[in-house]
Amino acid sequence: MKDFLTLTLAGRLPHSFHGNTPHFRWHWLDCGILQLTPHQSAERSLVLSAGIHGNETAPVEIVDHLLQHLFAGELALRCRLLVILGNPAALRANRRYLDSDMNRMFGQRWQTFPPGSDTARAAVLEQALTQFWRDAKEGERWHLDLHTAIRGSHHVRFGVLPARTTPWKAEFLDWLGSAGLEALVFHQTPAGTFTHYSCEQFNALSCTLELGKALPFGHNDLTLFARTQQALAAWIAGDYLKAANTVPVRYRVSQQITRRSEAFELYMSDDTLNFTAFPRGTLLAEDGETCYQVEHEQEFVLFPNPAVALGLRAGLMLVRES
């Protein structure tokens, strides 16, 4: 199954849907969904996903490199591993999505979107996660969803953590720092993201890893993410890297900017970087009679995008935690 990415992008089926290597058994579950199970017992489970947005290719290349090392016997597998290339149709088209943004659909929110290939795929991914966690033994459950941002960023590598009712484990946050993440953003409210779904429904320690800027296949400088790939390989092999010398800067979401009508205007230039700071009182956006402005002494913008569909997030505002 060394040609997993090639088959996924081509929309072709493999000659066999399962097989064995000297170290693990693999099972092609669906297009872009591959499960690897080590021959020895494993209490840890990892969902490693990428390509939820089809124009975010660097994470897909990182996942492919890890798979190549696993199948070549150059990387040990000491956890149950579910690899997901989220939206193969959008990957083939080099588009963020075909009809609607899949990363707003999870938790059965796809039922509220117009039916299409994206909603159908979201349902398939929910089912794949449900089966994977159902078969897992008690033990560590991680979900790392690899993305790239539309815009450039003051933090090249950062993580976004879903709202969670129980405290985050220090070991998980330390690992994110060891993976080279410069900042961590903590959501305060539920969302339709893939990581929120796995965290809320299956109590997984989950994080969306934002790695650089969206570029086509072959145009990514993967050296920028070498530390992240090294940390992923170490966790898969049952090793742990030492914590990074620099602790990630922590932010929490203070408010969400939502585009609710065609009158929506976002008062930020197209070259505004993620984590750009704005002082108290700054008018950020207007939508009819609704005004969004900075409420704290200083807030930082994340994912500003005035072109989202009506009813979706056009940006997050963050405050820095001490």
What does this structure look like?
This protein has 2 domains: 3-237, Aminopeptidase; 254-320, OB fold (Dihydrolipoamide Acetyltransferase, E2P), CATH 2.40.50. The strands form 2 sheets. The protein has a 13-stranded mixed sheet, sandwiched between helices. It has a 3-stranded antiparallel sheet with strand order 11-13-14, with no helix packed on it. The protein contains 7 helices and 16 strands. Helix content is 23%, strand content 29%. The mean pLDDT is 94. The chain is globular, with a radius of gyration of 19 Å. The longest helix is centred in the middle third of the chain and has 18 residues, at 117-134. It is α/β, with parallel strands linked by helices and 322 residues long.
Quick description:
The protein has 322 residues and is an alpha/beta fold. The chain is 23% helix and 29% strand.
Provide tags for this entry.
alpha/beta, arginine metabolism, Aminopeptidase, zinc, SuccinylGlu_desuccinylase, OB fold (Dihydrolipoamide Acetyltransferase, E2P), metal-binding, single chain, Succinylglutamate desuccinylase, 322 residues
Strand content: 25-35%
CATH class descriptor of the largest domain? Alpha Beta
Distance between the termini: 46 Å
**Outline type:** globular
Largest sheet: 13 strands, mixed
Number of strands: 16
User: How many domains, in number, for the residues?
Assistant: 2
SSE run: HEEEEHEHHEEHEHEHEEEEEEE
Helix content: 10-25%
How does the helix and strand content classify structurally?
Answer: alpha/beta
